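Why SNF-related serine/threonine-protein kinase? Reviewers of the renewal asked for a concrete example.
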Amino acid sequence: MLGTRGLRCWEAAGWDIGVLRNGEYIGEWELRTLGKGHFAVVKLARHVFTGQRVAVKVIDKSKLAGEAAGQLLQEVRCMKLVQHPNVVRLYEVIDTHSKLYLILELGDGGDMFDHIMRHEGGLAEGRAKHYFAQIVHAISYCHKLHVVHRDLKPENVVFFQEQGVVKLTDFGFSNRFQPGKMLTTSCGSLAYSAPEILLGDEYDAPAVDIWSLGVILYMLVCGQPPFQEANDSETLTMIMDCRYTVFSVSLPSPGSLISRMLQRDPRQRASLEQIEGHAWLQGVDPSPASRSLLPLTSHKRVSREEHEIIIQAMTCGHIADRDTIQE
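Here is what the prediction returned.
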């Protein structure tokens, strides 16, 4: 938690920052609400140290029951664990008496759902392949750390135009899993959820993410969800029957890959290794973000005034004394 004393140090160092009073951000953060949910509000703010814009997920702890509070802690644990160029980064967690603030990396290009909706009939195959490879790369990393997302959908994939990549976000339904051990919690969004979750059955964690990957790829290349009917009941029936429009083109088309993921029986679904090795994805660089990140700025490129502000802030925060910092 960043206390009042620490905030005074930043203000003394010359940074325009807000303070936490009664659990709310005020001051010169340039706050703007981006979205609202039952438990949380997502706001736009300026980072206290770098001036970089960040997203602030403000969670009202008074609205969280025991199970919801536990899931929130799980979200924070998973996001701290998952550090990947195609996953939105959790910078900091600020805990107050009534609110929890998650300081998150902010995308500059909107989410994938809006992007798909602007491309009737789907994205160009090369572009769809480029984005999908990055999503698979991120989920493969998560699963290797035994983290399952459980709410994969285009709305939870964010564009970072300056970096030229897409990143996963919203780990609100994420959880740790043990290979071979089933999970039981039903969660996610109907149109993207695997049949076994909707049935309330025990389920294999990686398999439910793979089903959702199949839905995302279908949307990328078709421009619409595979299971979207007039009402939830009809949509549920389509998912249970695994009925969707099948591509008429031959291997190694995206259609063949989609059919390997949208399997009613989770044991028949493609593994992530099989997805990454599919012919349709060959020749695609799955990790351009690792080369697009800008290097850290050298002190030689910082102005004298900026350098002094940073020294003051670090000294005031008891990171080290001035002589040690300048060595």
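The chain has a mean pLDDT of 80. This is the kind of structural detail the renewal will allow us to pursue systematically.
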